[in-house]
């Protein structure tokens, strides 16, 4: 069976009905958790774990929480950003120390092509690759692991993570806060488009800076 993670929509799996059902139930549990009285703590835990190993992206919890409490949108986005960056540190060290053990897992869950893309981006863009990773639809955990695997300098990795993750989560919170249920209900459809649009803008900026 092959499972491919799609940001904000969990996993799309072909074959292996039991595993596909497991991921669907896991995704549904995350959505339900957004209404829990300890939702902010659960959001932080989700954002932390998603940056290194957990399959469900925090957007699916951030969006309904923002819709329910729009006056706390920026607080929820800040929690998600900080926890995601700290989780990215774990992913970095996992990649630095345990890459060989991880490669079979990356291939099994359909992450390997995304990993090679991340590795190529690091060779081409360096610091900018982490910033791109923070907003792109490619699973962020793949970039954190790849950054450690290629021994990217740690401080640029952290700086790119803060900017990239911050842009993504504050954008999601801001759009849900401004547009309400219209955007929240279609987040799964729009998040990929928004992510790639931001990536395109950043790539253009990089190209302009390199030509100057």
TrEMBL record:
Transmembrane segments: 74-105, 125-143, 150-173, 193-211
Keyword flag Metal-binding: no
Keywords in alphabetical order: Membrane, Transmembrane, Transmembrane helix
Chain coiled-coil ranges: none
Keyword Transcription recorded: no
Superkingdom, natural source: Bacteria
Protein name per UniProt: DedA family protein
Provenance organism: Salinisphaera shabanensis E1L3A
């Amino acid at each position: 069976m092959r499972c491919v993670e799609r940001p904000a929509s969990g996993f799309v799996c072909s074959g292996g009905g039991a595993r596909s059902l497991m991921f669907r139930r896991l995704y549904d549990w995350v959505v339900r958790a957004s209404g829990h009285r300890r939702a902010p703590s659960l959001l932080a835990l989700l954002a932390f774990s998603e940056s290194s190993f957990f399959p469900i992206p925090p957007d699916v919890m951030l969006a309904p929480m923002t819709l329910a409490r729009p006056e706390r949108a920026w607080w929820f986005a800040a929690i998600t950003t900080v926890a995601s960056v700290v989780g990215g540190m774990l992913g970095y060290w996992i990649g630095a120390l345990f890459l060989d053990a991880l490669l079979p897992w990356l291939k099994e869950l359909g992450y390997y092509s995304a990993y090679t893309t991340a590795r190529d981006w690091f060779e081409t863009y360096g610091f900018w690759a982490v910033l791109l990773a923070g907003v792109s639809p490619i699973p962020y955990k793949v970039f954190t692991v790849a950054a450690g695997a290629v021994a990217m300098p740690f401080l640029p990795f952290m700086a790119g993570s803060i900017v990239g993750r911050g842009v993504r989560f504050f954008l999601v919170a801001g759009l849900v806060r401004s547009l309400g249920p219209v955007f929240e209900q279609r987040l799964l459809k729009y998040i990929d488009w928004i992510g790639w649009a931001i990536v395109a803008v950043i790539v253009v900026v990089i190209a302009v800076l390199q030509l100057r």
